[in-house]
């Protein structure tokens, strides 16, 4: 059994590690934006923090919707129905274009929320401009995620890594040029971050198409042999699977991003410190998330082959792998939280509060890893609605209400603290929400995987 576990863990890691580097590089764009503006001034950092809160909500929701491509293609690959794959990918690109354009419009409209947050006028103006500029990258991002799902389902994850690393390098260089105004370029501050990120995403999408048209690994399933019009039945089928994933991602990321918006009334220091803690915890989260993406692929392929036992085995090896990592990450964040905060900003007040919030981030590492890997394994079964309901309940039924009670301490709410706990109160609520989501998703994964095995035994597909 130990040998089998090691073999499966190695197979998962073989898929996950290039995805991880790619995810880290993608998140690294946000890290670069925050860190580089943090060393510019606190006002620009606050603008980027608020703008990134809205951008992240929409971006991750789109990413969730497009993750359906991974589940669909993985099943076809497992069943060796390779002739179906090119059509699915072409239709997913149409889906991505439509989703990306709608997301771009919603993102621009969402800047109206800044008017209700009692922000300093300069910060509000700069945050809105940041969102308007960066939104140009949204259609490219949605279509890029369609190709992302296609390539990871073929176990070809290295292109994801290469594209993301190239995008990160472009982002850092352009940030350096445009934030600070080097080589005679205008000093744009927060707006420079937005230009670098938006253009960088289009560059990643174009480069991914170029790669796929030339690499031998895609010849058998080449989706670029011709252009076909939208087939609405195929698009609706993928969207039906993807929308609950998008809502699931929206529930979690909007809960975290809403904290950044709700604490804006407490001033620039609270906003900046919260963004630093959230940014770094998001960086660490990429490890269990990358394992989860690999699990969706491996579980989907196993089910496509009709191997229910292997699908269950893959699921629990992946969950165990992720939990082991999260224990290490929690320890590291606890020990090095002061150094982490100092790497983001030179402001002593922001450093101190960010270090305190990073301790909360360390606490929820286990539950965060459990919920993301369990939900990804469940998606491999092409089940997306139940994880969506669990996340909505955990974050909007518990995390945000309790966070508002502790963080804002409104007079009309019973059982409130004597004074607002600000960002720390919200993070306590987030810990509770993640713990509830993780526990329920693990229980549901156990239930659905066991039911599928029993059904396979009853039908004679596997021996009792």
Automatic annotation (TrEMBL):
Compartments where located: Cell inner membrane
Membrane topology: Multi-pass membrane protein
Coiled coil ranges: none
InterPro entries xrefs: MATE_fam, MATE_MdtK, MdtK-like
Any one Pfam family match given in the protein's UniProt record, by short name: MatE
Domain of life: Bacteria
Predominant localisation class: membrane
CDD domains: MATE_NorM_like
Keyword list, A-Z: Antiport, Cell membrane, Ion transport, Membrane, Transmembrane, Transmembrane helix, Transport
Spans through the membrane: 12-32, 52-73, 93-117, 129-148, 160-183, 189-211, 241-264, 276-295, 316-337, 390-413, 425-445
PANTHER family (UniProt xref): FMN_FAD EXPORTER YEEO-RELATED (PTHR43298:SF2), MULTIDRUG RESISTANCE PROTEIN NORM-RELATED (PTHR43298)
Protein name: Multidrug-efflux transporter
């Amino acid at each position: 059994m130990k040998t089998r576990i090691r073999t499966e863990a190695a197979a998962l890691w073989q898929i996950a590690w290039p995805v991880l580097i790619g995810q880290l590089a993608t998140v690294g764009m946000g890290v670069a934006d925050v860190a580089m503006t943090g060393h510019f001034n606190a006002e620009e950092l606050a603008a980027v923090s608020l703008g990134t809160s809205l951008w992240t909500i929409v971006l991750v929701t789109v990413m969730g919707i497009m993750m359906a491509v991974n589940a669909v293609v993985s099943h076809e690959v497992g069943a060796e129905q390779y002739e179906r794959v090119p059509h699915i990918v072409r239709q997913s690109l149409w889906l991505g274009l439509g989703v990306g354009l709608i997301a771009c419009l919603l993102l621009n409209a969402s800047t109206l929320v800044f008017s209700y947050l009692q922000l300093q006028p300069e910060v509000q103006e700069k945050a809105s401009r940041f969102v308007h500029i960066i939104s140009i990258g949204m259609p490219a991002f949605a279509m890029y995620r369609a190709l992302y799902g296609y390539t990871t389902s073929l176990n070809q994850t290295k292109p994801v890594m290469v594209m993301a690393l190239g995008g990160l390098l472009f982002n850092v260089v352009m940030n350096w040029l445009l934030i600070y105004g080097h080589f005679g370029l205008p000093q744009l501050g927060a707006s420079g971050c937005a230009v670098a990120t938006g253009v960088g995403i289009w560059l990643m999408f174009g480069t991914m198409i170029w790669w796929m048209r030339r690499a031998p690994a895609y010849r058998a399933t080449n989706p670029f042999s011709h252009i076909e019009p939208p087939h609405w039945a195929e698009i609706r089928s993928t969207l039906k699977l993807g929308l609950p994933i998008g809502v699931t991602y929206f529930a979690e990321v909007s809960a975290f991003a809403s904290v950044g918006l709700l604490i804006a009334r407490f001033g620039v220091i609270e906003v900046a410190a919260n963004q630093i803690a959230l940014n770094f915890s998001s960086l660490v989260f990429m490890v269990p998330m990358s394992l989860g993406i690999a699990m969706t692929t491996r579980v989907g392929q196993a089910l496509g082959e009709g191997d229910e036992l292997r699908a269950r085995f893959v699921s629990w090896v992946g969950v165990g792998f992720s939990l082991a990592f999260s224990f290490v990450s929690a320890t590291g964040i606890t020990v090095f939280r002061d150094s982490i905060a100092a790497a983001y900003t030179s402001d002593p007040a922001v450093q101190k509060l960010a270090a305190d919030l990073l301790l909360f981030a360390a606490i929820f590492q286990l539950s965060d890893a459990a919920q993301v890997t369990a939900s990804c394994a469940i998606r491999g079964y092409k089940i997306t609605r139940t994880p969506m309901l669990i996340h909505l309940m955990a974050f909007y039924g518990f995390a945000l209400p309790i966070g508002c009670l502790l963080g804002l301490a409104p007079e009309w709410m019973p059982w409130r603290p004597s004074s607002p706990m600000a960002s720390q109160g919200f993070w306590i609520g987030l810990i509770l929400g993640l713990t509830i989501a993780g526990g329920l998703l693990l229980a549901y994964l156990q239930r659905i995987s066991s039911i599928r095995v029993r059904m396979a035994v009853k039908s004679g597909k596997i021996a009792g």
